[in-house]
């Protein structure tokens, strides 16, 4: 079966990769919420209203605390922390005698100069994802992701943070557009650096995409999700025996290969169904199902509601 790209692919003819596909699928968007510059001894606390909140240390150093972690996290210049489904956080830094200068930060698109100094400079924001992103990205990341700017893998990230800060405080024409573009790249740079720095990623789709031995098979499943792939074909593409491939895939992904394929099909279906012009019947065949009812049953098992009900729910949201 040759799968048409009509429903499942973006209109661009540019080559893609699996991580880029996932980020587009979950509609990942990064937004800068503000920041501050301060000198001396300081402390701030803020509530976390978004599932994925990030803090970037532009200059200086600080100590971060958040709920659910055993020890404070020391931040240096170029470091980024992503807090995943946390409720609150505190930041403190600076040196000096006497009590710390305490202030309140609100995620209100403002950059605050606390005392006219810039020994420590921090910018923060959040990552927006759709419901598929909550299921994929939020569950793939640990409670706190700490990417160190001093690592070789973070060179691109450090440069992005500097450019973001320059646009935030520069007040130049077109700054809003530039901030948006740099913020989008920040998500990718953080994920790349996290993958490179992590000793071992938790089992899941992110670890699968980073696994060099499984990548050829995963690429096939992503490029032709509607093809009735057999384990032998996928194993051969990865130059492994059927048994070794199945065992490795389950260890890395947390699910068998064909279960991963089915879940990927359902994510693609969710994206397609948000377009009210998409017809369920052709979509079902494009995803490899022999009938619309077979697809509807599989979709309901995976998503918890029928395709038409999902579309209505997505439109209401």
Neighbour order of strands in the largest sheet: 9-1-10-3-6-11
Count of individual beta strands: 11
CATH architecture of the largest domain: Sandwich
CATH class label of the largest domain: Mainly Beta
The CATH superfamily of the largest domain is: Jelly Rolls
Strand content: 15-25%
How many domains comprise the coordinates? 2
Could you name the CATH topology of the largest domain? Jelly Rolls
Instruction: Give the overall average pLDDT.
Output: 87
- What integer value in Å does the Rg equal? 22 Å
* Distance, first to last CA: 35 Å
Q: Count of helical segments?
A: 12
- What structural class do you assign from the helix and strand content? alpha+beta
What does this structure look like?
The chain has 317 residues and is of the alpha+beta class. The chain has two domains: 23-197, Sandwich (Jelly Rolls); 205-316, Orthogonal Bundle (Arc Repressor Mutant, subunit A). 43% of the residues lie in helices and 20% in strands. The protein has twelve helices and eleven strands. The strands form two sheets. It has a six-stranded mixed β-sheet with strand order 9-1-10-3-6-11. The chain has a five-stranded mixed β-sheet with strand order 5-4-7-2-8, with no helix packed on it. Strand 4 (62-66) and strand 5 form a beta hairpin. Helix 7 crosses helix 8. The longest helix has 23 residues, at 175-197. It is elongated.
């Amino acid at each position: 079966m040759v799968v048409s790209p009509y429903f499942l692919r973006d209109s661009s003819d540019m080559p893609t990769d699996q991580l880029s596909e996932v980020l587009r699928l979950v509609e990942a968007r990064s937004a800068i919420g503000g920041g501050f510059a301060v000198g001396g001894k300081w402390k701030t606390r803020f509530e976390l209203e978004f599932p994925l909140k990030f803090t970037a240390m532009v200059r200086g150093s600080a100590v971060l605390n958040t709920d659910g972690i055993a020890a404070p996290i020391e931040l240096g210049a170029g470091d980024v922390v992503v807090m995943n489904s946390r409720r609150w956080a505190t930041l403190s830094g600076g040196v000096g005698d006497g009590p710390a200068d305490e202030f309140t930060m609100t995620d209100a698109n403002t950059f605050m100069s606390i005392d006219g100094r810039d020994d420590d400079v921090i910018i923060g924001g959040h990552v927006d994802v759709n419901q598929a992103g909550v299921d994929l990205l939020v569950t793939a990341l640990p409670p706190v992701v700490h990417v160190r700017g001093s690592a070789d893998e973070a060179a691109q990230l450090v440069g992005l943070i500097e450019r973001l800060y320059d646009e935030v405080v520069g007040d130049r024409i077109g700054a809003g557009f530039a901030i948006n573009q740099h913020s989008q790249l920040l998500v990718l740079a953080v994920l790349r650096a996290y993958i490179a720095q992590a000793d071992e990623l938790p089992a899941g789709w992110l670890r699968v995409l980073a696994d060099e031995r499984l990548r050829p098979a995963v690429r096939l499943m992503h490029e032709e999700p509607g093809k009735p792939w057999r384990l032998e074909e996928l194993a051969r593409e990865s130059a492994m025996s059927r048994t070794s491939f199945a065992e490795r895939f389950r260890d890395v992904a947390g699910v068998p290969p064909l279960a991963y394929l089915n879940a990927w099909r359902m994510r693609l279906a969710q994206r397609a169904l948000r377009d009210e012009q998409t017809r369920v019947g052709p979509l079902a065949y494009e995803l490899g199902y022999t009938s619309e009812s077979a697809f509807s049953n599989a979709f309901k098992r995976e998503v918890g509601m029928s395709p038409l009900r999902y579309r209505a729910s997505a439109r209401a949201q």
